[in-house]
């Protein structure tokens, strides 16, 4: 081991700042979050749909097992592993790593969504009962939780054969519980197959859309046609997923890819949390149909449209500025110079609030819940959780940017005082 490797090892070992509650969070979160997923699914299927019922409603052991569930889950992950290697789309380079290299990533997630859609149309044409996903939700979630633990264990063990420069700065603390949770290796790969990148936007995100479709088909079985509320929820969330995959290249500069190791936190989030909690509105509507007037539907569509416009325009402006700050669409924007040579936007969308994309995200989240009415709290779980998540993520980003940009970041914060909600926060 050379002197540079030793210095890096010492730097990694001395990085003691712990996220998500440190060791306590690393012990509690992998226990409580899987229970939360199962609890929410149970509540969405119950007649009362009450999240305040005590004792909390949890499934029995026999409700968690169906031999078809792990077959579907493994087949779905296998399908998207194959689609990952499709010779479609372009190949892009990620940001420069600590050893000076840049990894290559296939930008074909939207193609995977299209291929999945064609497969679903074929299955529907063959008479496959997609609505049976409603009955399979609990065993599928249990299988995804088990797969998350198994993959996380594999990632933790293999990380000890990774070179030090390949480890995440915050995931090599020497505390095995915390490192397992947060992730030791930054970009674990099997050959050219990037495990984190594949899981980030493929099986879980597209799986969310498939579960929504299953809920819609179950409603058709029960009532003869899908409700307007169900159509809105499916359409809004399909747009969101399609947008994420159409702009897949932007994920290469996100915190998940650039900063966080690939451990239980991201594995569970990608494979279990996203598909089975983000689909709660659709699951709720199967057992709790809601009447929606055209006027209310139009107002909800307008809210989602405003949120999407803010989300997409702000993200596009940021991504264009990162790719080419001389482009005519961003060249006239005001910026602040940093000691690192980079510049911070202080006009346009990013002069409005520090995270306009988060504001758009939250407006869309509200629009997804409103079709479910106001009689139950459960459909609003997502926006409550997502608000907490984005405020926490914003705080993490704030700490990193202050450490990275120093006085320039303080100047930026004075120029743009509001973080997410203008004149509120």
From TrEMBL:
<feature type="transmembrane region" description="Helical">
    <location>
        <begin position="262"/>
        <end position="286"/>
    </location>
</feature>
<comment type="pathway">
    <text>Steroid biosynthesis; cholesterol biosynthesis.</text>
</comment>
<feature type="transmembrane region" description="Helical">
    <location>
        <begin position="293"/>
        <end position="311"/>
    </location>
</feature>
<feature type="transmembrane region" description="Helical">
    <location>
        <begin position="107"/>
        <end position="130"/>
    </location>
</feature>
<keyword id="KW-0256">Endoplasmic reticulum</keyword>
<dbReference type="InterPro" id="IPR001171">
    <property type="entry name" value="ERG24_DHCR-like"/>
</dbReference>
<keyword id="KW-0152">Cholesterol biosynthesis</keyword>
<keyword id="KW-1133">Transmembrane helix</keyword>
<feature type="transmembrane region" description="Helical">
    <location>
        <begin position="20"/>
        <end position="47"/>
    </location>
</feature>
<keyword id="KW-0753">Steroid metabolism</keyword>
<dbReference type="GO" id="GO:0050613">
    <property type="term" value="F:Delta14-sterol reductase activity"/>
</dbReference>
<keyword id="KW-0812">Transmembrane</keyword>
<keyword id="KW-0756">Sterol biosynthesis</keyword>
<dbReference type="GO" id="GO:0005637">
    <property type="term" value="C:nuclear inner membrane"/>
</dbReference>
<dbReference type="Pfam" id="PF01222">
    <property type="entry name" value="ERG4_ERG24"/>
</dbReference>
<dbReference type="GO" id="GO:0005789">
    <property type="term" value="C:endoplasmic reticulum membrane"/>
</dbReference>
<keyword id="KW-0752">Steroid biosynthesis</keyword>
<protein>
    <recommendedName>
        <fullName>Delta(14)-sterol reductase TM7SF2</fullName>
        <ecNumber>1.3.1.70</ecNumber>
    </recommendedName>
</protein>
<dbReference type="GO" id="GO:0006695">
    <property type="term" value="P:cholesterol biosynthetic process"/>
</dbReference>
<dbReference type="InterPro" id="IPR018083">
    <property type="entry name" value="Sterol_reductase_CS"/>
</dbReference>
<keyword id="KW-0444">Lipid biosynthesis</keyword>
<feature type="transmembrane region" description="Helical">
    <location>
        <begin position="136"/>
        <end position="157"/>
    </location>
</feature>
<keyword id="KW-0443">Lipid metabolism</keyword>
<keyword id="KW-0560">Oxidoreductase</keyword>
<comment type="similarity">
    <text>Belongs to the ERG4/ERG24 family.</text>
</comment>
<feature type="transmembrane region" description="Helical">
    <location>
        <begin position="67"/>
        <end position="86"/>
    </location>
</feature>
<comment type="function">
    <text>Catalyzes the reduction of the C14-unsaturated bond of lanosterol, as part of the metabolic pathway leading to cholesterol biosynthesis.</text>
</comment>
<keyword id="KW-0472">Membrane</keyword>
<feature type="transmembrane region" description="Helical">
    <location>
        <begin position="365"/>
        <end position="391"/>
    </location>
</feature>
<keyword id="KW-1207">Sterol metabolism</keyword>
<keyword id="KW-0153">Cholesterol metabolism</keyword>
């Amino acid at each position: 081991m050379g002197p540079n490797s030793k210095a890096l090892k010492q730097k990694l070992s001395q990085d003691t700042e712990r996220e998500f509650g440190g060791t306590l969070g690393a012990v509690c979160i992998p226990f409580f979050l899987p229970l939360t997923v199962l609890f929410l699914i149970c509540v969405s299927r119950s007649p009362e749909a009450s999240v305040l019922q005590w004792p909390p409603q949890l499934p029995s052991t026999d409700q968690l097992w169906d031999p078809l569930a792990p077959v579907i889950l493994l087949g779905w992950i296998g399908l998207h592993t194959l689609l990952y290697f499709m010779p479609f789309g372009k190949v892009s380079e990620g940001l420069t790593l600590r050893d000076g290299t840049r990894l290559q990533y296939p930008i074909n997630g939207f193609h995977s969504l299209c291929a999945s859609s064609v497969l679903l149309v074929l299955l529907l044409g063959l008479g496959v009962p997609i609505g049976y996903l409603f009955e399979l939700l609990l065993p599928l979630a249990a299988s995804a939780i088990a797969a998350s633990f198994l993959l996380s264990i594999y990632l933790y063990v293999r990380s000890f054969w990774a070179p030090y420069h390949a480890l995440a700065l915050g995931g090599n603390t020497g505390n095995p519980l915390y490192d397992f949770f947060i992730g030791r290796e930054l970009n674990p790969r099997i050959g050219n197959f990037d495990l984190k990148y594949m899981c980030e936007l493929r099986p879980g995100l597209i799986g969310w859309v498939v579960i929504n479709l299953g809920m819609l088909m179950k409603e058709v079985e029960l009532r003869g046609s899908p409700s307007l509320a169900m159509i809105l929820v499916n359409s809004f969330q399909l747009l969101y997923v399609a947008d994420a995959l159409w702009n897949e290249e932007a994920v290469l500069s996100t915190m998940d890819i650039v900063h966080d190791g690939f451990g239980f936190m991201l594995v569970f989030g990608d494979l279990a949390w996203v598909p089975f909690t983000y689909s709660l509105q659709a699951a709720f509507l199967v057992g709790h149909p809601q009447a929606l007037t055209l006027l209310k539907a139009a107002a909800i569509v307008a809210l989602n449209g405003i949120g999407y416009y803010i989300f997409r325009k702000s993200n596009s402006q940021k991504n264009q500025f990162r790719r080419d700050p001389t482009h005519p669409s961003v060249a006239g924007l005001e910026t602040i110079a940093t000691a690192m040579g980079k510049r911070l936007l202080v006009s346009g969308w990013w002069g409005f609030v520090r995270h306009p994309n988060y504001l758009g995200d939250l407006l869309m989240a509200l629009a997804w819940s409103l079709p479910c009415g106001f009689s139950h709290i459960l459909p609003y779980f997502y926006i409550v959780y997502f608000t907490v998540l984005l405020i926490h993520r914003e705080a993490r980003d704030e700490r990193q940017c202050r450490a990275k940009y120093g006085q320039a970041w303080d100047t930026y914060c004075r120029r743009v005082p509001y973080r997410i909600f203008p004149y509120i926060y």
